[in-house]
């Protein structure tokens, strides 16, 4: 009986040791798996920050800065933002919305940066941070020949067409103290001018030039205002702002910006000819 008890105890001890070893091994493996997941997760976070797409928001009816080539959005602004993505080692994507939604989209965090021929203004600086400017420009009158417009006050009391959300709209409301006729694009405003629905259009010089090309009855004034375009981002992103500023400065210095301007201006001119 005593010997049987010892044998049974020995058997139970072996079984217990085996079970304990199995449990410890299982727990150790689970612990190692969790550790690996945590380590992998940490590495993935680092990669995702670099590998995550840099998203540009724009309004693709503003040649030569952004416009459609088939289904592809191209232009000067797109090249600048692509170069920023390359500097950061991130994939690039671009989306088009109405111009008056461009800055709100960046503020909301649905895009990383906005470039759409955006003029730097004190009012906009309250909501976004701007890069260094990459072009100096201005707004002009588009009008029918025979009814010349030279200075801003010439449009006082007239039916003025503008693109919604632009500095042209602000000029009419703030300087002329009246309400403009608002359109989704400079081209739509100029179409209304040709149809007699507005008396004059105020628009940025580059799209204005594109709109009057080949239109014998239309003319452009000199600059009403002087402006600068820059890239806009959400506030509080110094590293992204630094990368954008460096990209613009480098593109100016090495001639890429001048090349982009020449290439896309020529392409925009051909689009108008079609």
Task: Give a brief description.
This protein has 274 residues and is α/β, with parallel strands linked by helices. Helices cover 49% and strands 19% of the residues.
Describe the overall structure.
It is a single chain. With 274 residues, this protein is an alpha/beta fold. 49% of the residues lie in helices and 19% in strands. It contains nine helices and 13 strands. It is globular. The N terminus is likely disordered.
At the fourth level of CATH, the homologous superfamily of the largest domain is Periplasmic binding protein-like II
From the structure provided, what is the oligomeric state, counting identical versus distinct chains? single chain
Helix tally equals 9
Any low-confidence stretches, pLDDT <50, length ≥5? 1-9, 19-48
Overall, the morphology is globular
Mean pLDDT: 85
Task: Supply the CATH class of the largest domain.
Answer: Alpha Beta
H/E element order: HEEEHEHEHEEEHEHEHEEEHH
CATH topology of the largest domain: D-Maltodextrin-Binding Protein, domain 2
Q: In percent terms, what proportion of residues is strand?
A: 15-25%
Helix residue percentage = 40-55%
N→C terminal distance: 108 Å
Strand segment count: 13
What class would the helix/strand composition place it in? alpha/beta
CATH architecture of the largest domain: 3-Layer(aba) Sandwich
Computed Rg: 31 Å
Number of separate structural domains: 2
Major sheet attributes: 6 strands, mixed
């Amino acid at each position: 009986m005593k010997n049987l008890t010892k044998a049974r105890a020995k058997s139970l001890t072996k079984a217990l040791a085996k079970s304990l070893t199995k449990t410890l091994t299982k727990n150790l493996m689970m612990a190692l798996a969790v550790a690996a997941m945590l380590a992998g997760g940490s590495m993935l976070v680092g990669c995702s920050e670099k590998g995550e797409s840099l998203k540009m928001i724009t309004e693709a009816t503003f040649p030569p800065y952004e416009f459609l080539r088939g289904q592809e959005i191209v232009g000067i602004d797109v090249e600048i933002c692509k170069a920023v993505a390359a500097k950061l080692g991130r994939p690039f994507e671009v989306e088009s919305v109405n111009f008056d939604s461009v800055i709100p989209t960046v503020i909301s965090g649905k895009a990383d940066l906005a470039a759409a021929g955006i003029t730097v203004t004190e009012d906009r600086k309250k909501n976004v941070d701007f890069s260094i400017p990459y072009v100096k420009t201005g707004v002009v009158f588009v009008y029918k020949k025979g009814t010349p417009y030279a200075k801003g006050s010439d449009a006082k009391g007239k039916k003025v067409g503008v693109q919604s959300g632009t500095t042209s709209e602000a000029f009419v409301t703030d300087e002329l103290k009246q309400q403009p006729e608002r359109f989704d694009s400079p081209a739509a405003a100029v179409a209304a001018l040709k149809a007699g629905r507005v008396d004059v259009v105020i628009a940025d010089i580059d799209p204005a030039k594109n709109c009057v090309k080949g239109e014998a009855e239309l003319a452009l004034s000199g600059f009403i205002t002087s402006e600068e375009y820059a890239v806009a981002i959400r506030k509080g992103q110094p590293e992204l702002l630094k990368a954008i500023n460096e990209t613009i400065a480098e593109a100016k210095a090495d001639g890429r910006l001048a090349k982009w301007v020449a290439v896309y201006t020529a392409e925009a001119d051909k689009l108008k000819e079609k």
